[in-house]
Amino acid sequence: MQTPEEQNHSDATQADQASQPQDAQQPEGAAEQSQEAGGADQVVASLRQELAAAQDRSLRLQAELENLRRRHSRELQDLQKYAPLPLVKDLLGVRDNLQRAIEAAEKLDESSALLEGVRLVVTQLDGVFQQHGIQEVGAVGEPFNPERHEAISSQPSAEHPAGTVTGLAQTGFMLHDRVIRPALVMVSSGPPEGN
User: In terms of domains, do 17 and 62 share one?
Assistant: First the structure.
């Protein structure tokens, strides 16, 4: 048997031992809770990053879709705007032939009703061209523009500075802002060398 002091000491030791596992469990429980909280924070941070990335992708896709719509709309407008281009190219040959017939008849000094009729047809055709946005490319007296003119010769000219169109061999045409056929022109190379 134990003396009362030994028993008190034994009870205190047992109480200490009993309290130690609880104390030890509390820090472990707190550590587990803190690990769980840290893990939850990581999950939340990861989900936020994924959400931000998804929102960024969504915005980029929306912008790309809007750009695609605009490009498609622009291409559709261009297609409608320049749809008559093949027909116009074919009609320009007809107009040229009518113009040559008028010039040939004028050289023969004929002023018949047939010549007047052909002139009216050319005038009417030019009016239809204008209604549909087809215009002649200006030439004589203008600076040479390689986008609108095609030089077939170069000659000195006292009247025109170098790089200026001095003569027209064939009229050029544009449909809106697109050249259908460049004007065939003669270009000044500047004043003759003797002057």
Answer: yes
